[in-house]
Amino acid sequence: MNERTPGTVLLRGGTVYSPADPFATAMVVEGGTVAWIGSEGAADAFADGVDEVVQLDGALVTPAFTDAHVHATATGLALTGLDLSAARDRADALARITAYAADHPGDRILLGHGWDAARWPDPRPPARAELDAATGGRPLYASRADVHSALATSALRDLVPGLADRAGHDADGPLTRDAHHAVRRTALASLGDGQRRAAQRAALRQAAAMGIGSLHECAGPDISGEDDFTGLLRLAAEEPGPRVVGYWAEAAGPDAPEVLEKVRDLGAVGAAGDLFVDGALGSHTACLRRPYADAGHTGTAYLTADRIADHVTACTDAGIQAGFHAIGDAAVDAVLTGVRQAADRLGIARVRAARHRVEHAEMLDEDAVAAFADLGLTASVQPAFDAAWGGDDGMYATRLGADRARGLNPYAALLRAGVPLALGSDSPVTPLDPWGTVRAAAFHRTAAHRISVRAAFTAHTRGGWRAVGRDGGGVLVPGAPADYAVWRTGDLVVQIPDDRVANWSTDPRSGTPGLPDLTPGLPLPRCLRTVVGGRTVH
Question: Could you tell me which residue ranges the Amidohydrolase domain spans (predicted)?
Fold first, then answer.
């Protein structure tokens, strides 16, 4: 038996998180499938007939996580390249850029990520002249933490014809909208195949080390490019690692047959993911009903409700999943209006059955939550956004005011309404950190939006599989895919972080399996092994 030819494995002497047996301590995996789950005593019957026995020594076995929103190449570049996320202020960011440029004299274009001027004492980002000096006049692309704006030097801007005429152009400051997309395409086109493949490999390796067994890659013509997307899918198929499910974000309108044929040819499961209806709050490009508290405008709208309706109609007719990036309340309104129009054309049952999805879905009021449930939309959400930018003194409150900010990311209301949740990171916007993501959902900065650890864990494991139409994965029961992770952790608890969260019994006789105590301040579980389809990938 080796990584590529999984045999029969008995894991015993730990805790197996499974609805099949809440007291399970052992599991048998045969090939790529879970074959049996049960007690330590019953495991003796299997011990002599398996290829390998894994002594868990008290470790916890869970389904592997699914990260439902990732940009793999950008994640790998952030892991291996210029990381500006820890920059304390503008001077520190410029010093980091200078040092990186000196250490990488052979790079055609310097690539960085993660700066967030909203966290700095003086929130002015570096100006173009400052960047030119820091890089010695070399091309630099450095995306903001939310990846909806970027710093670019003169040398990089000069490589983009007509940049000054594009929407979102700023002669001295960060670029947004079409100007940002054009500069990003040029920067990423500079990557050689080897550099791109190394970045993708680094991202997949990091995901596996975090107990992630599946990634949803959210690609598109404004994000990464066709070669990048197909290269990632090919790499995932050729080398042991997390599964990669690909989404291609290109709108299907009058040219719907050609677009949907391209989606299929690229190997994508849907014309979805980051199909932008708006931008992001941090970059003032999320589309709002009312103006920003710190800017005199309402952000940016990229797609109308009619375009959304045409896209959903074409995808539903073709049996392809549709989906959109929508953060602001006006963007969410456009999505819901468009999907409702498609349901009026095709029948609501067909639209519901397609399991279309919305990425981020941050600004939802009570009516929007109800519409999500009625239309059968999946909410692909990122709890780490709230951990990073929520609270009365966070970036959300700066952009929206504290009252509006408290309404963001209403996970409890979505679950109460029956809206399917799939959790992710939007890496590199926030790191690949599944237990941290579960913690962020359970200890939301707005107490009314908190969900139980168990509900968040389910949304980060089974929810990701359901979001791509595979209801049998993300759970450890006989017959399920053998995608699991082994963890060293502290005591297991049945955790209820807030009285407003739906309760369940903590009595062991209730048969409710425990999960790690994720109370803030306690260490998170450490991944010992990650297995995908019966093959050890970490």
Answer: 52-538
